[in-house]
Amino acid sequence: MGLLRLMMPPKFQLLALLAFAIAMIFLENQIQKLEESRGKLEQAIARHEVREIERRHSQVGVKEVQLEEDDTVVIYNRVPKTASTSFTNIAYDLCNKNHYHVLHINTSKNNPVMSLQDQVRFVKNVTLWKEMKPAFYHGHVSFLDFTKFGVKKKPIYINVIRDPIERLVSYYYFLRFGDDYRPGLRRRKQGDKKTFDECVSAGGSDCAPEKLWLQIPFFCGHYSECWNIGSRWALEQAKYNLVNEYMLVGVTEELEDFVMMLEAALPRFFKGATELYKTGKRSHLRKTSEKKPPTKESIARLQQSNIWKMENEFYEFALEQFQYVRAHAVREKDGELYLLTQNFFYEKIYPKSN
Hints:
Keywords: Coiled coil, Disulfide bond, Glycoprotein, Golgi apparatus, Membrane, Signal-anchor, Transferase, Transmembrane, Transmembrane helix. By secondary structure, the protein is of the alpha/beta class.
């Protein structure tokens, strides 16, 4: 080859080198195309294998999957005046269609803290009451750690929280005027015509900053420190539980997003929930009567309190976490919300099936 190149004129040598370079580039392009085709073929084979596994699984293991799903328990330890009744009505509307039980946890005097013996009884009910499974429990009860009682399969916790001042204002007027859900029911403070602003101005107990301390202890749990107003430990414990013990925590202001994400994550319970929320006549229509928005002065006065700062810190923490989860699950287009499509699949599954 070297001798032949020496015998060739320089012009032909240059042409030969150019032809060789073109041939190499063409060969590299063909190799790259083959690699891409091989990759696509591997993905197609992987998808086919996954579909085949899923098909066999649906034929052979469908009863096992149903048994696993039918053993599921969801607990919604609802915070008062966070749209909790509105959301719970969705669960009641769907229980017949989706074949699960809904149980209200009704504590004496709406005390959110259970006695030790009641905690044990509740844990046993949730764990062993097979006739009620799958089950959706709801009630104004603070978080309860099931692992303390030796339970291996914990229930799924969900919740909704609200801007702390808006929640307090709603609760203040609810105690005096009720709502449109049960308008004839006499409320504890019925007859008291004092507005929230007048209460704040007079330094009343029903609108005191201490009344803001509720969402933190509900998430903190049954420890004594949780209910010590203004406890930094309680705030940090509430944050820890929200991230580690709750599957999803929504906010009242974005309830539709919360419902949509639950339907996608827990269709066993919430299939059809989004459509029901949008079109239902009673599921999300509960409103506090005679509610007057507070003035900027009243809000500013409450915001001077360290209790508000801590409750607001917890609310902002929950809101940021919810928006982070939502950003990876939901998108908005033309004013409508849509779930994002599945963006993962399985490949390189070994050993190969026969």
